[in-house]
Amino acid sequence: MNVMTQLRQLFFGGIQNRRNIDESLPNEKEFKVPNVDKVIEEGKKAPTKFHKIQLHRICDPIDTEIYTASGWPSVSGDALKALAGKVSADIDIFDEVDGNAEEVPETSIDEALATNNEALSQNPEVSVYGSAYQAFGGGQKGIEACHAIAALCEVCSIDSLISNFILPLQGHDVSGENGRIHCSLNINTETGRLSARRPNLQNQPALEKDRYKIRQAFVAAEGNSLIVADYWQLELRILAHLANCKSMLAAFRAGGDFHSRTAMNMYPHIREAVEKGQVLLEWHPQPGEDKPPVPLLKDAFGSERRKAKMLNFSIAYGKTTIGLSRDWKVSVKEAKETVERRACWFPSVKNATGSVKGHIERAATNTPVQGSAADVAMCAMLEKSKNARLKELGWKLLLQVHDEVILEGPEESEKEAMAIVSDTKGIEIFAVNSGR
């Protein structure tokens, strides 16, 4: 059973292949699936292991810009999010309540969706919905279809997390003595960065996206602590240096939340809110203060800041305006206009021929940034592993995960070790945290 093939049949049955006009998907197709419901087919006396189902297109033809290399419409996560629209990000029925995982809302998922759909149907803003909205007839049916596809994206995301990260961690081949997890490291990468496998510990969710608290499963040995030295926004800082981009350099020198500053430069209404003191770029609490006097930009304009963050990293890795328009769920024209407000142009690009221009653009993205970041992280690991005082205190280098260098050592010397880690021969650590 191929789930992707079935999804493609449901959404795009009858569509013509983009690369070969002589090929097209059938309007209806038979699939053999596991007989989990114990269906007894006609002429059979008992349920068989598999049974056959007929799938046909369930909506009008859908406009899509995302295709596979073979010419068929893609049904990847990004493609499904484009079908659903902004509801896939803005309406998250699996979120925790007030950040407390133990609090469970009384309203069921179905009730929450029904209530939300009812409110939206009274005053629908069609722009928030993806291409599935019109394909399913618009109105309430279009809204329900978009939310259903958004929920499908969520299920696929959870399934990927389980199959690609959680289940491999439970295998006997990854556990060593005393319950310690050991992975294999690969240093033969294009950029020089370390990559992990069996299990891929670098697949663990980012700290701010760890909604299921998976990171809490990784703990130090009894009596020890972990120090995580995070080179905060290292690649963007390297990009600013390599490109000598004055606006980026100025933003980093000003300090604070770089992505919030980018959002302020992208959106006039956010800049106006900052200038009027309605929101703060950042906040440094003083004794006795438990919350800022006005909302932080990242809280008040979370959606815009996410787009700014996406733009910052997309520029670093050469994503096109078409790719950004899909990520942001806006028109290509709007994405292009937004990028041009933040673009840093290489002087030789404008007059270069096609092949030379392509070479300049490729050389200006990805590998120099990631490679330089890998060099900085490698230097940090060498300095820390050679530090005599850290060795004397019993601390050792444990792992590198992207821009994080992780050490383990005795709890009683944690504070001194943190001070050493945060200032090892002038190598700047942008954030240092410890955990047990």
From TrEMBL:
Q: Where is the DNA-directed DNA polymerase family A palm domain?
A: 213-413
Ranges in a coiled coil: none
**Keyword annotations from UniProtKB, A to Z:** DNA replication
Question: What domain of life does the UniProt record list for this protein's source?
Answer: Eukaryota
- Its name, as the record gives it, is DNA polymerase I B, chloroplastic/mitochondrial
